[in-house]
Design goal:
With 86 residues, the chain is mostly helical. The chain has a domain at 49-86. Helices cover 80% and strands 0% of the residues. The radius of gyration is 27 Å and the shape is elongated. The N and C termini lie far apart (61 Å).
Length: 86
């Protein structure tokens, strides 16, 4: 990373930190103590998306574990067949 890119990155970071108070959340997220229907709907949507993502990732992990078990079983069977043929 050259010096000009680094100085530009530092300037942008300092500007973002300095103006952090000016930027605020949307009205729905700004005051979540009001249990409005929009806030409840957004919370439900977030949890639904997290559930779907978790389910898909769990399926991928289960598939990888199953493939690993099949590979080990196949390797074990090949070793047994090699020993019995020699």
């Amino acid at each position: 990373m050259n010096a000009s890119r680094l100085s530009r990155l530092c300037a942008i970071s300092i500007l973002m930190l300095a103006l952090g108070g000016v930027v605020s959340a949307c009205p729905v997220c700004f005051n979540p103590s009001e249990a409005s229907s929009a806030t409840q709907g957004l919370n439900l949507a977030i949890f639904t998306l997290l559930g779907i993502t978790g389910g898909v990732l769990s399926g991928v992990v289960a598939f990888v574990i199953q493939m690993r078990r099949r590979l080990r079983r196949t390797e074990k069977n090949e070793k047994i067949s090699d020993i019995s043929t020699t």
